[in-house]
Specification:
The chain is an alpha/beta fold. 45% of the residues lie in helices and 13% in strands. It contains 15 helices and 9 strands. 42% of the residues are buried.
Length: 363
């Protein structure tokens, strides 16, 4: 038996992060086993209890989903049991801004007697997944979470990472946790019902990660941006799959999944995005803010000699080719001293970051 560490010694432990990210279509079709396989993969002989929390916007777009989930559980009753009725919650930033939405989810987890061997299955856009993930992370110090993302932004970015959170004190993700999901199962059929604005906004994160990690993917976005904007299923599937792979690779293989350092390239464009969302009362979607933020950061990089005109023109053309806005009236708002109010997002993001701001260099 090894003795306990003496006073003054360093404690050291490795935290393994492992979870599947699966792409499928019609996840709640009774013959589709992607979700139940992901839930039961560690204990295939058990019947697993799960509480489903679903984005109300997705239910409005796909009303049959409310009945499909119980039918799916019934078809796989040997491995899956509903822990309670399907809970519908508001989507978008209201899910993260209203404490009562979080409280409803926490009450449902308590009433369903969700324990650390049960599951919470969050189905919806990134804001719902963030909020439900936070609820799961603080229940019993962490219960198993399965994310079923329904938007371009969530499937290609936020759902595959380890962050959860809700807004507070007027700040994006003021309350939050780093907690890896048990699994991510993305249904490409959900993208078919997205409004054009949501589809286009979600593509901004793909532009970001392509610029950071994959020049060939960036060139593909330039060529196929109009097809993505028009909702071509093959183009959307290719976009979210490659974006997810690049985000996941960075998060899990670049040495800092819990963001303890200051150099966080995946935050490219985000200081302005977060501030624009708040200034506009969330009229600006997160992806739209990211697109504007990428443009601002790229123009600033050129002004200090980190990139040239050709690169800047290519970045702006890629964003415009997708149909992303390059301007919002909130950019023109001024404070009492006459400075653009959006610039206060720089200091706020330093707090969110926990360190110094960095900017990507073109190479």
């Amino acid at each position: 038996m090894q003795p306990c560490a003496e006073s003054g010694e360093h404690a050291r432990a490795a935290v393994a992060i492992e979870y599947p990210v699966v792409f499928t279509r019609d996840v709640f079709d009774e013959d589709n086993e992607a979700l139940v396989d992901a839930i039961a993969r560690r204990e295939p002989a058990r019947r697993h209890r799960a509480l489903f929390v679903v984005d109300a916007g997705l239910l409005a777009a796909m009303p049959a989903l409310a009945d499909a989930i119980p039918r799916y559980a019934g078809a796989h009753r040997d491995r899956l049991a509903l822990a309670g009725p399907v809970l519908s919650v508001v989507g978008g930033e209201p899910a993260k801004n209203d404490p009562e939405v979080l409280a409803r989810v926490l009450r449902a987890l308590d009433e369903a007697r969700i324990d650390r061997h049960s599951f919470v299955v969050a189905v919806g856009g990134g804001a719902v997944l963030d909020m439900v993930g936070y609820a799961a992370a603080i229940t019993h110090r962490g219960v198993r979470l399965v994310r079923v993302p329904s938007t371009v932004l969530a499937q290609g970015d936020s759902a595959v990472g380890v962050k959860n959170g809700v807004n507070g004190f007027g700040k994006k993700n003021f309350f939050g946790t780093f907690a890896a999901p048990f699994a991510v199962v993305a249904d490409l059929a959900f993208l078919d019902v997205l409004p054009p604005r949501e589809r286009i906004a979600g593509a901004a994160e793909a532009v970001k990660v392509a610029l950071l990690r994959d020049p060939d993917f960036f060139a593909w976005i330039v060529r196929r941006g109009s097809a993505v904007a028009e909702g071509d299923p093959a183009a959307l599937a290719a976009l979210v799959r490659r974006s997810a792979a690049l985000h996941l690779g960075h998060i899990l293989r670049c040495g800092d999944p819990f963001e303890t350092g200051s150099a966080r390239p995946l935050d490219f464009g985000h200081w302005a995005a977060h501030k624009l969302e708040a200034l506009s009362g969330h009229r600006v979607r997160h992806g739209e803010g990211v697109g504007i933020g990428i443009a601002l950061d790229t123009l600033y990089a050129r002004s200090i000699g980190l990139c040239g005109d050709t690169f800047v023109d290519a970045v702006l053309a890629s964003l415009q080719g997708l149909g992303l806005p390059m301007w919002d009236p909130a950019l023109a708002e001024r404070d009492a001293e006459g400075s653009p109010r959006v610039l206060s997002g720089l200091d706020e993001f330093r707090e969110h970051l926990g360190g110094e701001l960095t900017i990507a260099r073109c190479r």
